[in-house]
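Example record

One chain of 379 residues, shown exactly as stored in the release files.
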Amino acid sequence: MTNQLRISFGCIVLLIMWSLACAPPPVTIRTEVTSKPSGASVSFGRMKDAINEHLGVTPYTNNLTGPAPAWAAGYYRVEKKGYAPQIQYAKETYSNRALHFDLLPLPALPTPPKVVYPDPESVAIKPLTLDIPEANTLRIDPNSKIATMTFKQQEGTGAGSLVADSLILNLQRLGFNVIDRELIESVLKEHNIIAEGKTTLSDLEVSKKIGQLFNADYFVSGAITEYTAQSQNVQLSPMIPEEEKVRYIEDYNRYVRFYQDEEITPPQIAKSIQEWELEYTSRPKSSFINFAKVGITLKIVDIRTSKIVWVGIAYTSDLRLQDAMKRIVDGMIKSFTASRPQPAPPAAAPAPAAPASDAKPAAASGEAAEQAPAAVAPK
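Predicted structure tokens for this chain:
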């Protein structure tokens, strides 16, 4: 029995030695996962929606040793904070496996659009509003004689004489013949037409008297409808400049498209430009601004026909009363005056004609004068 056991044991040993001698040598295969930038987390899974086996961080390596080692097919996911995660599928292989991931940085949330607050002065300074009927086609000739008086005004403002004097000064600078306002009022007082700057006569009746006394062509009169200045607390809402809107919309579209294309949920939801504009309107700031408001009505009477030939109503606001008044007066004058005609340059002397062999004798000076067109005197 003992011999039999020894023989059996020996056979087993020989069989094992024979098996080892005939078996193939062990093989080592490697998996390498790299990324740019490195330090990304590496995970593996047999199914794309079940990549839950954490392997390590890049650069990641793993060896598999055996007589016939094989890497199973599956999905590798690499992710790093601040970068879009990436997934690659790897087939089953009996050799080395190398995977590389170029990670794309996640686009940053668009920088909020910058805003500017309106200049307080720009809030007070309004464009000139000049209401003129379409039928007003008057253009006063520079040679016409113009008369005007103190404009009707509210008590205590003194604006009536200021506006009338400003009108006179501007017309005179343009070369118009304007009768002195104080002279007109002095003469009218002497004739008992006005008293203490007032009269019971209508503008048409006053214009007739002025025409008789001063031989004027036009009478300009008017009234001050508003002449006030006061400081007001104004709420200034910020505005997004146009170039800043364009910049933000481009950044916003780039941000949204990236996450849509990559099918990734963005870490933060970006606000649209309309949402920013709505939010900024709730952030006004207060500022005290001086509002100088001026309103003037003006009409022009043709003294020869006793007809009102021009009517205008103007309004504006500015930082100072005089600036507002000046803009109104300038706008009205431009509307009812024509450009002062410039003298024509002297005509150049004609070049002498070359003598011809068959030329007839020149006509007598009297005959030439009869044939030449008569010069038209400027009006």
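Notes: Residues 108-340 form a domain with the Rossmann fold fold (CATH 3.40.50.10610).
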